[in-house]
């Protein structure tokens, strides 16, 4: 299972890349594999605020729909518009072009609630 070590992970299968007070959020390769081929992605509007662990969108696979949970509190500053046209990017590239949203982090201390790559791997073995 691919797990970049420079990312943080949530128990709800999202990954987070943090630069200063900006976080890029996507779903993990484990989540993508469990869901199967993703055919639709529902993302929030820019400027919408979310609390940690709040549902911020959903992904639809051929046989199921799964909610997306925000790993950190913050305001949406960008969404990956490309996923609206090509949701299968999440299947082929969940950690790069398959990112979902970028947020302005409200409280960096919430990163203490996230997992390292090793902790996330242990949780999903």
Automatic annotation (TrEMBL):
It holds the Pfam family GCV_H. The keyword Cell inner membrane does not apply. Belongs to the GcvH family. PANTHER family: GLYCINE CLEAVAGE SYSTEM H PROTEIN, GLYCINE CLEAVAGE SYSTEM H PROTEIN-RELATED. This is Glycine cleavage system H protein. Its cofactor is (R)-lipoate. GO terms for biological process: glycine decarboxylation via glycine cleavage system; protein lipoylation.
């Amino acid at each position: 299972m691919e797990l970049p070590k420079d990312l943080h992970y949530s128990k709800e299968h999202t990954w987070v890349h943090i630069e200063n007070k900006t976080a890029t959020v996507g779903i993990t390769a484990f989540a993508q594999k469990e869901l199967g081929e993703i055919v639709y992605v529902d993302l929030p509007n820019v400027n919408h605020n979310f609390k940690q662990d709040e549902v911020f969108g959903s992904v639809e696979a051929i046989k199921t729909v799964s909610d997306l949970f925000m790993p950190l509190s913050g305001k949406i500053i960008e969404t990956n518009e490309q996923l609206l046209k090509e949701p299968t990017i999440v299947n082929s590239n969940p950690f790069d072009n398959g990112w979902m949203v970028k947020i302005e982090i409200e409280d960096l201390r919430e990163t203490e609630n996230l997992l390292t790559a090793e902790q996330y791997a242990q949780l999903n073995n």
